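User: Can you recover a sequence for this backbone? Please restate the input before giving your answer.

Assistant: Of course. Working from this structure:
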């Protein structure tokens, strides 16, 4: 996990996206429920999908978009949906552009180039990559110790790009360092995005980049918002550990898999999903 500044995404677009998210969660409950996520669905309004795996009460609301936001936004804001749609679509485009750049910075440092990944497309721009926009709202909570904003998890994405509102901290990352193990707060840095290593780049890099365990906590006085873009491979792409990274002492640790297949495993096994797919123990 790291924070990215100087990323080239216009600040006014980020501000507009945050205002859109604020406006969405401020709608009356009966209005938000018009866009409720269906029991077996992915898109829409409701509790975050992983709240079922939390041992504490989840103190948050979430809204997920896969593909076009149009239908849901029309239900939420019958008069103003086009304005909000334009903002979300432009934001998603910028996130995809930034994610592709970050992917090449991360993969390039391992010696990987465009011809090594077929699904990156002929120019290596990841034109067909998938993106999920995930909005999270954490209202102030009278008893924060007894609740959790978002259960601990790793993201199923290749990488995720997170914008957090600047008024409160809440995102925490699990660190296992020389100084010990524990949860470390990731404070909002104005203008910066938090970048998470997800499970899919963990598999693609054969465990070189390790997906990061994180969670969100809540506080007594501040309403906190976050906007996460989960960036994944194209829908039908079979992703396997990059052959350039394999060798006699580096066997593939994971089988070929599509993102959808993995999301199915993740929905059942949550934080045990990645481990359940592992083919063998690391040799070093
Ligand atoms: O609210 C946050 O800062 C974290 C959100 C998150 O981890 C997610 O949506 O996957
Ligand atoms: Fe996450």
């Amino acid at each position: 996990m790291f924070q990215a500044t100087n990323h080239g995404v216009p600040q006014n677009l980020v501000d507009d996206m945050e205002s859109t998210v604020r406006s969405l969660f401020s709608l009356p409950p009966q209005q938000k429920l018009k866009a409720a996520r269906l029991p077996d669905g992915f898109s829409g309004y409701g509790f975050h999908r992983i709240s079922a795996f939390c041992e504490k009460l989840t103190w948050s609301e979430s809204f997920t978009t896969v593909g076009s936001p149009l239908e849901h936004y029309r239900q939420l804001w019958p008069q103003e949906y086009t304005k909000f749609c334009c903002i979300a679509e432009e934001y998603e485009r910028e996130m995809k552009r930034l994610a592709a750049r970050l992917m090449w910075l991360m993969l390039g440092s391992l010696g990987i180039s465009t011809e090594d990944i077929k699904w990156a497309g002929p120019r290596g721009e990841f034109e067909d990559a998938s993106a999920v926009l995930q909005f999270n709202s954490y209202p102030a909570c009278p008893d924060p110790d007894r609740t959790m904003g978002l259960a601990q998890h790793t993201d199923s994405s290749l990488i995720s790009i997170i914008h957090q509102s600047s008024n409160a901290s809440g995102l925490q990352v699990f660190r296992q360092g020389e100084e010990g193990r524990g949860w470390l707060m990731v404070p909002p840095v104005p203008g910066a995005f938090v970048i998470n290593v997800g499970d899919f780049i963990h598999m693609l890099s054969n465990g070189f980049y390790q997906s990061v365990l994180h969670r969100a906590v809540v506080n007594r006085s501040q309403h906190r918002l976050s906007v996460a873009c989960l960036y994944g491979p194209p829908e039908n792409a079979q992703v396997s550990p990059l052959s350039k990274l394999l060798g006699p002492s580096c066997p593939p640790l994971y089988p070929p898999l599509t993102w959808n297949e993995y999301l199915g495993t993740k929905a059942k096994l949550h934080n045990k999903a990645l481990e359940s797919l592992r083919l063998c123990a690391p040799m070093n």
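That completes the design. The first helix runs from residue 11 to 26.
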